[in-house]
Amino acid sequence: MALDGAHQRSRCLLKIADLIEQHADELATLETLNNGMAISLARGMVAGAVDTFRYYAGWSTKIYGETNPSDPSFFNYTLREPIGVCGQIIPWNGPIAMLAWKIAPALACGNVSILKPAEQTPLTALRIGELMLEAGIPDGVVNIITGYGETAGAALATHPNIDKVAFTGSTEVGKLILQASAGNLKRVSLELGGKSPNVIFPDADLETAVPNSVFGFTMLSGQVCCAGTRVFVQCDFHDRFVDALTRYTEKVVTGDPLNVKTTVGPLVSKEQFDRVKGYLDIGKNEGARTAAGGTLPGGKGYFVNPTVFVDVKNDMKIAREEIFGPVASVIPFKDENDAVLQGNDTTYGLAAAVWTEDVGRAHRVARALKAGTVWVNCYNNIDSISPFGGYKQSGIGRELGKHSIDLYTQIKSVWMKL
Q1: What's the number of domains the chain is made of?
Q2: How many CB atoms lie under 10 A from the CB of residue 193?
Q3: In this structure, is residue 383 part of a structural domain?
Q4: Is 322 part of the annotated catalytic residue set?
Q5: Is 191 noted as a catalytic residue in this protein?
Q6: If you write DSSP's letter for every residue of 158-170 in order, what string do you get?
Q7: Among 86, 109, 225, 226, the one annotated catalytic
Q8: Whether residue 329 sits in one domain with residue 399
Q9: Residue 9: partners with Cβ closer than 8 Å, 6 or more residues away
Q10: Does residue 1 register a pLDDT over 90?
Q11: Which of the residues 31, 191, 322, 336 is marked catalytic?
Q12: What is the per-residue pLDDT across 335-379, written as a single tens digit (0 to 9) for each?
């Protein structure tokens, strides 16, 4: 049975947050073992999951209906009710964060969750499942199933008794899930791929723009949907910025992800390693030049040195397709309009960034870029209180903030004759 009482749901979500926090070191280590992310990043992911559960614990008691000023002979009001059984499919790149983004709002709204972690990275999901039982979640309210996407994931997407599917992953799979939803017209929310433009104007502060741009395409070894992999730099600032970007990139520490000094760990699998390696060859064959990286460290592990391609045109494959590795393409632009035109020339629209000291220009470009999140003079800032999701083929719906309440509730209008 579901958690029916709002206060009960709130208490359970707070207890889950406390238990995750108490087991933070264990969970961070499991997350690093899951996919090779640097342990410092894994600790941040665990802390973010704690914040997410606490944030939605507050929402449990604040999901209100409305009274509407209809005809005085009627009393008209609305109820926000749970959707029901929610199938939730999360990716391998940030399992603990994605679990929290999915399960916390679903529980806050009174739903039942059936969560499938990626087959490559089940460890943290299974451990948090144990912690949820310890927190007092009734049997059957949260169900964690492991399996492959084409079997377990497809079963969730097509099952007639699943009322909603929430998916984070590739655009290709997202389209299949959307097609599968037609069977019973289940609700669908999708957070999909990206090829985010990171726009650098000549008045950008190099001391912050450079390290943040490197972080933007090397975080989690570049295996991030909102990675800033298209770095647009205004022509008269191009060489200076590329020089600084190259020097900083070459200092990035690649190695054992359990070492606290490591910034970039290995890629998640041989399949992903071969994919990224293939794009390095594609970039060179297309005529791009590596200003940094472009090589493999060798030895044991699926490591790729952080790579900066220059002499890139926006129509090259390395600028069009999501690589999901620590690879950035630097592309010159002429002026503000050109930056927006090139930045928007993509099938994706998940995120973008703008670097400038001109406040007016920052607002104009942020408004013009077709992306669900635009960072100004920062990169990869995410908070439970702020919505996250994409334009175009980067997804449907918004997670986090109050917007997740819309994803996990449905509205009933009640008319009472007086």
Answers
A1: 2
A2: 22
A3: no
A4: no
A5: yes
A6: H-TT--EEEEES-
A7: 225
A8: no
A9: 3, 57, 60, 107, 108, 110
A10: no
A11: 191
A12: 999 999 999 999 999 999 999 999 999 999 999 999 999 999 999
